[in-house]
Amino acid sequence: MADHQYRAVGLDQPPQPQEERTGTIVRIAVGVFIALLPALLTVILLRVTVNAAPADFIPAFGEGTLTDQIVYWSEINTFRAVGFEGGYFNFSEVPARANFTPYGAHSFVYPALIGIPARLFGWGWASPVYANMILIGAALAGFILLVRPDLPQLFALAAGVAVFYPLLLFIPTAMQETINQAAGILAAGLFYVRLSKGSAAPRWISPVYFVLIAVMSLVRLTWAFMFLPYLWLIVPQKRRWLALVLGGGLIAAAVLFFLYTAAPYQRNFLNFLMRQMAQNPSITHLITILYSFFLENTARLTSGEVLAILQRIQVIGLILAALLALTRRSKLRLIRRLPRPSWGTGESAVLVYTLGFILLIHLQVYAISDLLDFRVMSAYVLFALLWLIAFRRLRTVAILIGLNLIALPAFLSLYTFINTASFSYDEARITAFEEAIAPHIAYDPQVESAWGNTVLTGAFPPEMAALPDGVGFVIALPSDPFDHAPRSRWLLLTDADLAILQDKLPDDVNLDLQPLVETSAGTLYLNLDAQE
Length: 532
What we know:
single chain, 21 helices, 5% strand
């Protein structure tokens, strides 16, 4: 039949063969399964390892584990309740330079991204776990729709996700790793479509990619560096200098915005570097510090958690493989004799850049230390995994999956260690704390300063998440200086924390505190000299 004859009977095209229809149905079913797989595995793993369900989550932490999740949970809850009108979240009462935001060392963007939908759907103890499941599932569905993988690619994707341990580790937490991993998944799909289809790619691909990277750059600054390779791809070869200028400008803008809106964190390397340079502003001193820090981090590449070491090996291995692929036209006899993958120039260059810059950042200005680099690099390693799947480099993917399978016992051990506190914490303890402070702490929308809705504490136990909606907390870490009279309206301190704080205060500063109530997290005081 001619095409017009099919249209005459209500069909847009000739009927597909039964085999093709069956294949399409199978691919759709596998795609749906993959989108649901992280959530399903989370339910199973929690039951097997800590005998709990996602609904049992409380943002607690054990010794040496994820302390930041209490801050994230509380910041999101504050944004949900009062937006930018809440109390402060920072360290040692040093807020962000931007007066409009009370949020902490990770800026306000992540609390806003999760806090806005939380206004519609609510925010309970276990909400981060369900939000993470949705984020990862939606990102995987988006990747599948973008790349349109065939069955071998789908099976590789399912296997890769099932043993990508950083993804599974952080779903049942209140950390921001999952939103970064979701961004890595979507960025891989968008970038692949643009690179593989060139100018034939849909026009919306580039704007969506730039919006994604721009937003994520304000969540985690390292995403800003992903502007450069994409601009390099889309700018004509004779104007590659323009890609460098635009990319550099976007990176600089992201850095300045982040530094303006994020509260300082005294213990990171950049603050340490600035303090050192203030004492000795010579270039020699700068080079010495950078070189020493680089050597220290390099020496740590083979230390720490098994999964962290494995990820570093995979990062370095993929960088070397991609570099070898880029040298396939080399005339040097030694290089030509080396085995190397037959990857395309563009796909190899993107891998080298993406994994190379994140590794270099950790070696030079962040840290190689247990779960620190493991957490932050995981989104870029996930990008690389999906990049390889999109380009059908399935042998390499199989090697990565095999290495991860070998580390399964280490994963189960770490999974149990991380999640035990969050899924076994006594909720009655939090309820008792909430009841104890209720007569004394309440959010006041009429205060002139955010300090009037802030609690100063020496630590952040899970009880801090039970503060009234809109009340923030700042942390006076023992190692940080504290050279001013406390500004916060309330202080929640143990006797040891109070003694440490008093020792750090200048001699001319005297605390004027009124004890209010004893709690499991320390004594609650009213600061009679607060800046309200």
